[in-house]
Automatic annotation (TrEMBL), chain A:
It is found in: Cell membrane. GO terms for cellular component: plasma membrane. This is ATP-binding cassette domain-containing protein. One of its GO terms (biological process) is iron ion transport. It holds the Pfam family ABC_tran. Keywords: ATP-binding, Cell membrane, Ion transport, Iron, Iron transport, Membrane, Nucleotide-binding, Transport. InterPro entries: AAA+_ATPase, ABC_transporter-like_ATP-bd, P-loop_NTPase, Siderophore_ABC-ATPase. Residues 2-236 form the ABC transporter domain. One of its GO terms (molecular function) is ATP hydrolysis activity.
């Protein structure tokens, strides 16, 4: 379970995130949605202890993210940011192997190699595993980073817009991979999404963030309505019945 | 955690085929890459030994192996030790610095080490005249210069990285600005010197092996080896730091502490090298870039040795050429910048990437 209590972050002057109180249960896939600048990524990076809080506490599986040693948290929660500085002359497999750092400190064991192989296979990167990162397309590289986060083998996985740079096919594949990770590997995945329809179809819970606070939180059925979406995104949205569930139309 | 992993492995079926032995994350996993790496290390080692021997033996009037030969060689060996120290300092410091700053095209010199060195030398001559050059030589003065350079950089890092909005880019920018400021003050003072004073000073402002004094070595060698040992030992963590702040924090590394630690060690290495022989702006950058080309891996455990060997080959090669072909004893930075720059351009243009 991820618990946020009175979490606040000031960006100097008018921009303030929070106070946010939120409880995300263990298991399943939670999507954070909302307009630009609402504070979705800020909340996510604070949960992943990449950004300090100004007030409040965040607990993941009972561990306070500020108090707990970073190296212990690395075995409980993993986080992937939107933009990643990529190192040249690094192969996909070597990148994924970094995910084992919290356990092996860089000295990989046979068990580590197996987990790495599984993460690579899981994201269909088997054929690319010895390719260098700079020889990959944006989407492939994105998958490699997700594989690294999965090989970190944490219960909680936080992803900041993993669908960036991905085309239709790869976006769908990525969401299916994450869905499978949540179900088969029993991970709790929190993900920032831009496309409300992806959230509506693949997430178990949707958390709508607006102006630095959580305005709606519930199942996709509850969030995917004209009234809620129009209010959250401040643009007219009509939800229609699509072949695979509700579909938000906003253009 | 262990039982969780076990239950997960039951759910995710392992691939049908048994994992082939090729599935390893080791650096240089293919035979070809390993052969290439060790060939390069061997060639560099042979060159290094060749130049080292050449420096001891070339123009040595006594027959090789005789008593007199070794006596002359011993007198020349101080320069050799100085070059080894400088090669280690520059190579290890630059590679580490580029890693913590996530930037492959800068050198730690821009943090103002050299500007400070130049300012110290110029100030001494400005206030004390030619005698100033003598006044800032000696073991305690050498130590003082190292302490000043390390102190300045720690002040800069500590202030800028531990602050609330501390960030590396701002630190680098302020480092450059301070360096530029010191350089301008030095230039201004140099304008006011008499030609003879300036002449004496100018000799100190090129990287020159002959600037080093054997009495400095008992301090320089342990500092250099100590800092290098710690950095080599941190190689695995440096590999993580290279991924950037967010990724390394996510993997459980205390990124700020790691950065501070590496920058502190870098400042020791750079201070030793600069106080020993003077500014060598281009050398570190040149060898770090070449080392990445040669080693062809991200892994610091493999990059460091190649960088040190490359640095020694470049340095001793330049010294050998200067001494035995141009009879210009010691001033190596000039030839390194000329030839090294051309080699550098050649390698980069041929490979098309940094």
């Amino acid at each position: 379970m991820i618990t946020l209590k009175g979490v606040r972050k000031d960006y100097g002057g008018e921009v303030t995130i929070g106070p946010v109180d939120l409880e995300l249960p263990k298991g399943g896939l939670t999507a954070l949605v909302g307009p630009n600048g609402a504070g979705k990524s800020t909340l996510l990076t604070m949960m992943g202890r990449l950004l300090g809080l100004d007030e409040g506490t965040i607990e993941i599986a009972g561990y306070d993210v500020v108090e707990t040693a970073s190296k212990d948290l690395a075995k409980i929660v993993s986080i992937l940011r939107q933009e990643n500085h990529f190192v040249t002359r690094l192969t996909v497999r070597q990148l994924v192997a970094f995910g084992r750092f919290p356990y092996s400190k860089g000295r990989l064991t046979v068990a580590d190699e197996e987990i790495i192989s599984r993460a690579i296979d899981f994201l269909d990167l088997t054929d690319l595993e010895h390719r260098y990162l700079d020889q990959l397309s944006g989407g492939q590289r994105q998958r490699a980073y997700v594989a690294m986060v999965l090989s970190q083998d944490t219960e909680y996985v936080l992803l900041d817009e993993p669908l960036n740079n991905l085309d239709m096919r790869h976006s769908v594949q990525m969401m299916k991979h994450l869905r499978r990770a949540a179900e088969e590997l029993d991970r709790t995945i929190v993900i920032v999404l831009h496309d409300i329809n992806f959230a509506g179809h693949y997430a178990d819970r949707i958390c709508a963030v607006k102006d630095g606070s959580v305005v709606e939180y519930g199942t996709p059925e509850r969030i995917m309505t004209d009234e809620v979406l129009t209010r959250v995104f401040e643009t007219p949205v009509t939800v229609v019945d699509g072949p695979n569930g509700p579909l938000a139309v906003y253009y | 955690m262990a039982e969780m992993t076990a239950s997960r492995s039951r759910v995710t079926e392992p691939p049908a085929a048994a994992p082939s032995p090729a599935r390893t994350s080791r650096t240089l996993s293919t035979g070809r890459a390993r052969r290439r790496y060790w060939t390069i290390v061997t060639v560099l080692s042979i060159l290094a030994v060749g130049f080292a021997f050449g420096l001891l033996a070339w123009n040595n009037p006594m027959p090789v192996g005789s008593d007199g030969f070794w006596r002359i060689a011993e007198m020349r060996s101080t320069n050799l030790v100085v070059m080894i120290v400088v090669a280690i300092c520059q190579a290890v410091a630059t590679v580490s610095f580029q890693t913590v700053t996530n930037n492959r095209i800068i050198t730690p010199s821009i943090m103002g080490f050299e500007a400070l060195y130049i300012a110290i030398q110029t100030t001494a001559v400005y206030f004390l005249g030619v005698a100033g050059i003598i006044a800032i030589q000696g073991v305690s003065q050498f130590l003082l210069q190292i302490a000043l350079m390390v102190g300045l950089s720690m002040l800069l890092y500590g202030w800028l990285l531990s602050g609330r909005y501390g960030n590396l880019q701002v630190m680098l920018l302020i480092g450059i600005v301070i360096g530029g400021g010191l350089a301008s003050v030095s230039t201004f003072m140099q304008r006011l010197l008499t030609p003879s004073e300036f002449d004496v000073l100018a000799a100190r402002l090129f990287g020159n092996i002959a600037n080093a004094d054997a009495s400095y070595l008992p301090i320089a060698v342990p500092l250099c080896l100590g800092a290098t040992a710690v950095l080599l030992w941190s190689s695995r963590r440096l590999n993580i730091v290279a991924l950037g702040r967010d990724a390394s924090v996510g993997l459980g590394l205390n990124h700020r502490r790691e950065t501070m630690r590496v920058l502190f060690l870098v400042s020791i290495l750079m201070a030793v090298s600069t106080a020993l022989i003077g500014p060598m702006t281009f050398l570190g950058f040149l060898v770090a870039t070449l080392a990445y080309q040669f080693a062809d891996t991200h892994d610091h455990r493999y990059v460091f040795p190649v960088a040190v060997l490359t640095c020694f080959v470049v340095l001793s090669g330049a010294y050998f050429v200067m001494r035995n072909i141009f009879y210009a004893n010691g001033v190596v930075s000039i030839i390194i910048e000329l030839v090294g720059g051309l080699v550098f351009l050649f390698v980069i243009l041929r490979k098309g990437r940094l």
